[in-house]
């Protein structure tokens, strides 16, 4: 497969009062067209930083990102981002939010009616046609995220970047959205980089899971290819041995190889990110059962 | 069954009416009581203050004077109508004799009444306020977006913000009379002077609040704008302005309040025919009615200030995208 997106030797340093802080060190990743890649790691390991560099919102200190052989050095609609907290403009309706993106990207390329059809098409894709003209404060969190996805899809991006797209949603809504996303992905076959800290989500959605080591100077620890047939069904996969072995692999990376060092109080039960992560994926209980 | 429903409804309606009465008490009766107590203290206090212009006016005298002022206004209007009628009659006669005769209508030059002066004041304050807003909002947006510009302008803003209108006025008067020289002035000099003084004093709250509102836009929305590569103007119109509107209106309301306050002082000194001049003229006039008439002006000034603020609030409700926000 040909490389579509090439992240090569990316390092980044942030200036702090106590000297530069090296967040990422030598991240290398090649992504083919149509591939769905998840980045997983503990909180604060720099997953979002990688995404922001690909998006062009941050500039790498060393190394760089090539998209179709061209260097990425500023944000642009060909690398659309789905933000964790939806980032819809609260004063515009769902339709108008997508319209803002479509008008910007397809100015002069689509006629007015084509644009309208395209906006409606994308909102239908995420099942939001019934609430097209509602404003973000009138719809639920899951629906807002759907509109955020529609906005990103409507830009027809070369790479779709998703920064913990379902992180702020409850488990049921999250499952619904994951199913919707798989359905859309079957149809469009986008190139996607998704950040997540949900192990099930990563295995269910991805072609490849990239596991990151803990920061500072975080880098890629392991890469796991997920060779599961698509379309995938979460209920059937629940006792699929391959699926479970993938989960096992990711979990063992996160909890054994990259066990997060607790620097303050070893026995503090809930307050650190690792435990929260465990809660998110409902892990320890099921693992021991 | 039906009886049971009936009793429930009657109980409900009784309860509702009790609540309605309670609400009525809260919204009307309590403020009314406050007003009555104020009037009582005013009336009894006024009797014991003797000035060289007679007793300090109590509520009754003020009421009489307000009736007088309206009557004077009506009388003046009648005079004006009569004046124009006379002219028209005279012109018609002239035309009858000689159809080619040139006829003129001379404008009426009676002295402005209290109500005319309210009108002038309102026009002046709005002109000054609009001029100030037209400068303050764009500048506020620019310094809110660019921290370098903000650092450059902030010391100046902090320096000029506390300056009293009375300090500006002599300078403005001299500058206006030096620069505003035309044979056929569209506006009176006194009007321009008052307007500029008002503008100079009410620029700052709008500017500062707009800047704060603009600089407080969430990083998420800025990221969206960057990813979409929105051009500068679209960015300002679609993202900056809507998010800055609440702060901007806070500034505009403060500015309008200041503008109205400054205007009265400016008119007194610039002799612009408005409420400030009315107060000053009455003070100079020094008749036994003067204090009462000034008191009418004081109350009217307060009432108009309050109404102006309410109008801004209505405007804010109309413009604001967040209809659920509580505005007061």
Tell me what the structure shows.
The complex is a heterodimer of chains A (289) and B (328). Chain A is an alpha/beta fold and 289 residues long. Chain B has a domain of 206 residues: MetI-like fold, CATH 1.10.3720. At the A-B interface, helix 2 of A face helix 7 and helix 8 of B. Chain B: It is found in: Cell membrane. Chain B: It is a multi-pass membrane protein. Chain B: InterPro entries: MetI-like (IPR000515), MetI-like_sf (IPR035906).
Mean pLDDT across all amino acids of chain B? 87
Q: How many helices of chain A in DSSP terms?
A: 10
CATH architecture of the domain at 114-319 in chain B: Orthogonal Bundle
Outline of chain A, from the CA principal axes? globular
Instruction: Tell me the β content of chain A.
Output: 15-25%
Q: Please give the share of residues in helix of chain B.
A: over 70%
Helix content of chain A: 25-40%
**Order of strands across the main sheet of chain A:** 6-7-8-3-9-10
How far do the termini of chain B sit from each other?
A: 47 Å
Choose one word for the global shape of chain B: globular
> How many beta-strand segments of chain A?
10
CATH level-3 fold name of the domain at 114-319 in chain B: MetI-like fold
Oligomer: heterodimer
Number of helices of chain B: 10
CATH topology group of the largest domain in chain A: Rossmann fold
**How many domains is the backbone of chain A divided into?**
2
Question: What's the β-strand tally of chain B?
Answer: 2
Pfam family, one (chain B): BPD_transp_1
Transmembrane segments (chain B): 20-43, 121-143, 163-181, 186-207, 252-270, 290-308
Organism (chain B): Motiliproteus coralliicola
Family (chain B): Belongs to the binding-protein-dependent transport system permease family.
Main traits of this protein?
heterodimer, A: 289 residues, alpha/beta, Rossmann fold, six-stranded mixed sheet, four-stranded antiparallel sheet, 10 helices, 10 strands, 38% helix, disordered C terminus, B: 328 residues, mainly alpha, MetI-like fold, two-stranded antiparallel sheet, 1% strand, globular, cell membrane (chain A), membrane (chain A), ABC transporter ATP-binding protein (chain A), ABC_transporter_ATP-bind (chain A), NO3_transporter_ATP-bd-like (chain A)
């Amino acid at each position: 497969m040909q490389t579509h997106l090439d992240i090569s030797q990316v390092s980044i340093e942030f200036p702090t009062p106590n000297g530069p802080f090296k967040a990422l060190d030598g991240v290398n990743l090649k992504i083919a067209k149509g591939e769905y890649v998840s980045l997983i790691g503990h909180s604060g390991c720099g997953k979002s930083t990688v995404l922001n560099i690909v998006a062009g919102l941050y500039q790498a200190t060393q190394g760089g990102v090539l998209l179709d052989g061209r260097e990425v050095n500023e944000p642009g609609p060909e690398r659309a981002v789905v933000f964790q907290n939806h980032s819809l403009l609260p004063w515009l309706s769902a339709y108008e939010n997508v319209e803002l993106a479509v008008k910007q990207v397809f100015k002069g390329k689509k006629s007015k009616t084509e644009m309208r059809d395209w906006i409606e098409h994308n909102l239908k894709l995420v099942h939001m046609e019934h609430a097209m003209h509602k404003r973000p404060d009138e719809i639920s969190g899951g629906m807002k995220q759907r509109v955020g996805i529609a906005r990103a899809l409507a830009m027809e991006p070369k790479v779709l970047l998703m920064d913990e797209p379902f992180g702020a949603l409850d488990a049921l809504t999250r499952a619904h959205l994951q199913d919707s996303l798989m359905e859309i992905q079957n149809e469009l076959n986008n190139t996607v980089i998704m950040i997540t800290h949900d192990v099930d989500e990563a295995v269910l959605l991805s072609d490849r899971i990239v596991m990151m080591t803990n920061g500072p100077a975080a880098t890629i620890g392991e890469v796991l290819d997920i060779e599961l047939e698509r379309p995938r069904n979460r209920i059937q996969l629940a006792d699929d041995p391959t699926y479970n072995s993938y989960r096992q692999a990711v979990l063992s990376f996160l909890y054994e190889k990259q066990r997060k060092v607790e620097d303050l109080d070893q026995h503090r039960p809930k307050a650190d990110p690792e435990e929260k992560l465990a809660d998110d994926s409902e892990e320890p209980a099921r693992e021991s059962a | 069954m039906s009886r049971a429903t009936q009793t429930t409804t009657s109980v409900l309606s009784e309860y509702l009416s009790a609540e309605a009465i309670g609400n009525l008490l809260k919204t009307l009766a309590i403020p009314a009581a406050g007003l009555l107590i104020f009037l009582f203290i005013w009336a009894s206090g006024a009797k014991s203050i003797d000035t060289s212009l007679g007793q300090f006016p109590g509520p009754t005298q003020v009421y009489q004077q307000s009736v007088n002022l309206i009557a004077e206004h009506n009388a003046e209007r009648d005079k004006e109508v009569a004046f124009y009628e006379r002219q028209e009659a005279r012109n018609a006669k002239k035309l009858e004799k000689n159809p080619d005769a040139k006829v003129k209508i001379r404008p009426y030059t009676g002295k402005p009444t209290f109500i005319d002066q309210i009108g002038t004041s309102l026009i002046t304050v709005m002109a000054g306020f609009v001029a100030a807003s037209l400068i303050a909002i764009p500048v506020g947006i620019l310094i809110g977006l660019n921290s370098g510009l903000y650092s450059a302008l902030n010391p100046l803003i902090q320096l000029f913000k506390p300056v009293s209108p009375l300090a500006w006025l002599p300078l403005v008067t001299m500058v206006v009379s030096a620069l505003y020289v035309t044979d056929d002035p569209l506006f009176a000099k006194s009007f321009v002077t008052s307007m500029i003084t008002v503008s100079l004093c009410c620029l700052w709250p709008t500017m500062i609040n707009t800047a704060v509102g603009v600089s407080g836009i969430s990083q998420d929305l800025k990221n969206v704008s960057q990813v979409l590569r929105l051009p500068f103007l679209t960015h300002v119109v679609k993202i900056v302005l809507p998010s800055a509107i609440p702060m901007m209106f806070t500034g505009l309301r403060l500015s309008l309040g200041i503008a109205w306050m400054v205007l009265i002082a400016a008119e007194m000194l610039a002799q612009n025919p408005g409420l400030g001049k009315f107060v000053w003229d009455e003070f100079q006039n020094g008749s036994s009615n003067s204090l009462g008439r000034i008191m009418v002006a004081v109350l009217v000034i307060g009432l108009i200030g309050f109404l102006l603020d309410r109008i801004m609030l209505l405007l804010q409700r109309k413009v604001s995208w967040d209809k659920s926000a509580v505005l007061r």
